[in-house]
Design a protein that fits this description.
about 30% strand, alpha/beta, Metallo-beta-lactamase, Chain A, about 260 residues, 7-stranded mixed β-sheet, MBL fold metallo-hydrolase, Metallo-B-lactamas, 8 helices
Length: about 260
């Protein structure tokens, strides 16, 4: 079981438009961050994509990913779902729609915004068969658990996937650690976790919160993601404790 980090950046990416690198060194390639999404793969070749970032096409091409078996969405914010149209190509050689899951609220928002994806249109087939993640337990050879996490005034769905005797959790875009989150992610082998910046933020985890969350979950590995332009890769690597990995686009890790 392994995790492929397609994108590791915040909603504006690094650099921001205008060639704004902030505190990040432009000569360090791991500071170039596209919007967040990951793929989790098991030993049988089952692949689950979490979020369809606005950079999805470029991410899939860069990592030579031609297909996935299912899609999960954390929430409906643009950087996490507006690359959804890039899934059309994955429908071409399938006899049925690609399975996708999200919370009921996120499902409603996605259906409203991208109706043609879920209903078909003008003779084109349905691309995604969308379902409520709360009812999901098995998917593409994984067992799946999920939890709703506070994300400022809304929520984001965290996921825990298990296969091959290992577990990987994905918890991005949260602003508070709840008992339900600790229960869902307890003793996980790998926790891929929101870490926007060093200073506290009203809708995202900051560095201290991300590391504290991993410790409270007793995660074997903690992988930081959703990093903004203040998080220069090399200094951050030197700063974090043992067992914490600074994520970057293209990072691949076994659970």
């Amino acid at each position: 079981m392994k995790m492929l980090m397609l994108g590791s950046g915040t909603s504006t990416g690094v650099p921001r438009i205008g060639n704004d690198w902030g505190e990040c060194d432009p000569s360090e390639p791991r500071n170039r961050r596209t919007r967040v999404s990951i793929i989790i793969e098991n030993s049988a070749g089952g692949r689950v994509l979490i979020d369809t970032s606005t950079d999805l096409r470029a991410q899939l091409l860069a990592n030579q990913i031609g297909k996935v078996d299912a899609v999960l969405w954390t929430h409906d914010h643009a950087d996490h779902c507006h690359g959804i149209d890039d899934l059309r190509v994955m429908r071409y050689d399938r006899s049925n729609a690609l399975p996708g899951y999200a919370s009921e609220f996120t499902c409603q928002r996605l259906r409203r915004r991208f109706d043609y994806i879920f209903e078909g249109q003008f003779g084109y087939p349905t691309i995604i068969e969308l379902g409520n993640v709360e009812k999901l337990r098995l998917l593409a050879g994984f067992s799946v658990n999920s939890v709703e996490m506070p994300h400022g005034p809304v929520t984001s769905t965290g996921f825990r996937l298990e296969a091959d005797g290992k577990s990987i959790a994905y918890a991005t875009d949260f602003s508070e650690i709840t008992p339900a989150m600790l229960k869902c992610f307890a003793s996980v082998d790998m926790l891929v976790v929101d870490c926007l910046r060093r200073k506290p933020h009203p809708t995202h985890a900051h560095l201290e919160m991300a590391i504290d969350f991993g410790k409270k979950c007793r995660a074997r590995q903690i992988v930081l993601t959703h990093l903004d332009k203040s998080m220069d890769y090399r200094p951050l690597c030197a700063e974090v404790p043992k067992g914490v990995i600074v994520g970057y686009d293209g990072l691949e890790l076994p659970a």
